[in-house]
Amino acid sequence: MAVSPAARSRLETQGFVGLDDDSLSEVEPWLRFTPGLCTALIVVGTALALPVMLWVIAAIALVGAVFPVHPFDLLYNYGIRNLTGTRPLPQNGPPRRFACGMASVWLLATGIAFQAEVDALGYVLGGVLAGVASVVALTHFCVPSTIYCAIFGRPRAGAA
Fold it and tell me: Is residue 157 in a domain?
């Protein structure tokens, strides 16, 4: 099944450029895995007001910001894809890594709010982040990647 032009554009905004139609159509559903898992963990950490859990997720997001492969992508690449027979996920480009960096800072602030017993702020911060992350997981539209592209320009195939 071909990837729609809208989905391709949204994925290219995240930095997934230079993929042929076959490659992109095979991994497109799985590019929702990491944002979906992050969303679920953010929802749990926020709903239960668990600062330590939010800080652990922040550390995981920071790893995703620093390296071109998010730790949750590794769960897919070395586990799930062996069951599905699909190709590995492509490396994350600068826009998606920027998004992970923003999420890391946001999660840190959310955890601090709960630790400081400013629960209303923690719920607002966590709720907004969960909403933004769920949009990525459901539609591939990533607000932080769009911000990155507005500042630095859209990624191009072959560009370093």
Answer: no
- Residue 63 burial (10 A CB sphere; 0-12, 13-18, 19+): middle
Q: Tell which residue, 62, 64, 42, 59, has the closest CA to residue 114.
A: 42
Please check whether residue 3 lies inside any domain of the structure: no
Instruction: Read off the pLDDT of residues 114-150 as tens digits, 9 standing for 90 and up.
Output: 999 999 999 999 999 999 999 999 999 999 999 999 9
Give the residue among 110, 89, 107, 104 at the shortest CA–CA distance from 33. 89
Q: Is residue 96 part of a domain?
A: yes
CB 23, CB 87: distance < 8 Å: yes
Number of domains observed in the structure of the chain: 1
Sequence-distant (6+) residues with CB within 8 A of 116 are none
- Domain that includes residue 148, residue range: 8-152
Helix ranges (H only) for 2-69 are 5-13, 21-27, 33-47, 51-66
Instruction: Estimate to the nearest angstrom the gap between the alpha carbon of 60 and the chain centroid.
Output: 11
The 10s digit of each residue's pLDDT in 26-85 is 999 999 999 999 999 999 999 999 999 999 999 999 999 999 999 999 999 999 999 999
**158 lies in a domain?**
no
Q: Which tokens in the block code for residue 22? A: 């076959």
pTM for this model (two decimals): 0.94
